[in-house]
Amino acid sequence: MTYFTEQRSVEAVVERTNLDANPRLAQVMTSLIEHLHAFAKDVALTESEWEYAITFLTSTGQLCSQERQEFILLSDVLGLSMLVDAINHRRPTGATDSTVFGPFHVKGAPIRDMGENITLDGKGESCQFTGRVVDLSGSPIAGACVDVWSDNADGYYDVQQPGIQPQWNNRGRFITGTDGTYAFRGIKPTSYPIPDDGPVGALLSALGRHPYRPAHMHFLITAANHERLVTHTFAAGDEYLGSDAVFGVKHSLVTSYERADQDTVWRCNFDFVLTPDTTDSPPSTPPSPR
Amino acid sequence: MTYFTEQRSVEAVVERTNLDANPRLAQVMTSLIEHLHAFAKDVALTESEWEYAITFLTSTGQLCSQERQEFILLSDVLGLSMLVDAINHRRPTGATDSTVFGPFHVKGAPIRDMGENITLDGKGESCQFTGRVVDLSGSPIAGACVDVWSDNADGYYDVQQPGIQPQWNNRGRFITGTDGTYAFRGIKPTSYPIPDDGPVGALLSALGRHPYRPAHMHFLITAANHERLVTHTFAAGDEYLGSDAVFGVKHSLVTSYERADQDTVWRCNFDFVLTPDTTDSPPSTPPSPR
Question: What is the CB-side half-sphere exposure of residue B208 using CA atoms within 13 A?
């Protein structure tokens, strides 16, 4: 038994974990306590700063609702969401990179015919999205579900404006045929600020950071025997590419939007390369308790 | 400009902090990001664990109210509250040790005459508390305010049972005279569990830890030209002395309760040694922005 001291603070806490506790939980909590204490010691955290942190975390939790997840935003702006994605999706050369899922995906979007328009509010500059879903050898993947979503021309997702935007505006699912191609009409997305009227927005402001994300189209691609791919494509030339508030940009995901005919205005072609399913061999070394 | 990668995740986030930001905020956030990312990498945090953490923190925030502060409880059971206390109150040899403030202090308790009884509900084993407030040289401090509070015989503070316990039950303030002595009648405190029906209780349970605190009497002692002292005295022999859920116990604060006469049942004598005021020379090296 160790009474708590500044010098042996970690040991005093960690030794309390019962040997019967879940080994993975014990491992995670031990590392968390080590880093939490090291942080407080490194900066010699003051009592008023600790009080501020308690208030900040409490406000962050209390702002959460069905429509808003402020703790995910906090994780996003601290780069933690991208880090967890990177740790869990180390992809082989040639595979399409993943990026953050974001809070605006909705399950069960309408399955549409190839080439259909997902933009229901008539706003924005029309864009023809095309490409192929292939495996690491370049062979087309048939029956892949390409689930897409974006903000509208005003920078809001439909779920942020219920009653203002039509349900499923700028959302849809498309199933590839034997050639693995997909095609749909949407809009050239616009950059937008993450919700910044809460504690996370105040933190960004205090750090001198803006809340904007560069324009992007979301893709969630699932196919039998392949790992689920969560990614975006980013519009080349966007002014926020180098300063995405949530760090989602990767070089390989930046793509050009080219001028098309008068009717569609823009076109954007991007191929997605999936990796084999790894359900039986998880990428991370430590096993998860869940 | 650094695009985010697993290897350079910290640099990608930290370099976004604007050079005009408050230097102390920048220092604290840089260290926080370093340790947060190192934690996620050390344990190879899975996506389901990240989701669990988001849910846990959200629930913790949403349980907070005027009557309950679940984030302070979380800080307490992770040893962070005691660590912040230790970092900010490194006391010279001979001075009384500090410990956690706890969430149950109430400002403005009645100022009572020396020797008066603070137990208004008639419950518990009566105890006579006595001692002296002195400086590092052992000289008595006159005019010191000894603010005391404890749970009742059922293990609850008055503020946890409004309408059940009388207001100010087991609370009071006593002002020392020229001899520096204090005396009051209360009860021999009882050990009690911290609120354990929320996320923090679930965490303790998963770690195989109990939620109990050993029996203790709270003291907040203030005196002109001396540093404020926040501490408890703990009852020797308590079964939870070696496993306080919030790590508040220090050897020097464990004191014996001795059998007294029939009327008071117990007596407990403890002297408090204050340190000179350090308002003009804070103990921590890095300056606070507040």
Answer: 12
- Chain B residues in contact with A87 by the CB 8 A cut-off are 6, 40-41, 44-45
- Angle at CA of residue A28, ends A22 and A33, nearest 5°: 120
Establish if B46 touches chain A: CB-CB under 8 angstroms. yes
pLDDT tens across the length of chain B (290 residues)? 678 999 999 999 999 999 899 999 999 999 999 999 999 999 999 999 999 999 999 999 999 998 789 999 999 999 999 999 999 999 899 999 999 998 899 999 999 999 999 999 999 999 999 999 999 999 999 999 999 999 999 999 999 999 999 999 999 999 999 999 999 999 999 999 999 999 999 999 999 999 999 999 999 999 999 999 999 999 999 999 999 999 999 999 999 999 887 777 899 999 999 999 876 544 444 433 33
Alpha carbon A213 to its chain's center: 11
What DSSP state is assigned to residue A241? G
Interface contact B54-A69, CB threshold 8 A: yes
CA dist B226 and B135 (Å) reads: 8
DSSP structure class, residue A226: B
What is the nearest CA distance from A117 to chain B, expressed in angstroms? Answer: 33
Which residues of chain A make contact with B43, given a CB cutoff of 8 A? 27-28, 31, 286
Alpha helices per DSSP H over A142-235:
199-206
| B64 in A contact zone (CB under 8 Å) | yes
Using a CB–CB cutoff of 8 Å, tell me whether B205 touches chain A: no
Smallest CA–CA distance, residue B57 to chain A, in Å, is 7
Tokens of B8: 């350079």
3 state SS of A222: strand
Give me the residue label for tokens 């408890």.
B232
Provide the ipTM: 0.91
Partner-chain contact B207 A9, CB within 8 Å: no
**Backbone angles phi and psi of B83, in degrees to 5:** -65, -45
Is A215:A125 a contact under the CB 8 Å cutoff? no
Q: What does pTM read for this prediction?
A: 0.90
Rounded to whole angstroms, the Cα distance separating A104 from A100 reads 11
Closest CB from B37, B60, B251 relative to A61: B60
Strand A181-187 with A126-134, pairing: antiparallel
What is the rounded CA–CA span in Å between residue B39 and residue B148?
40
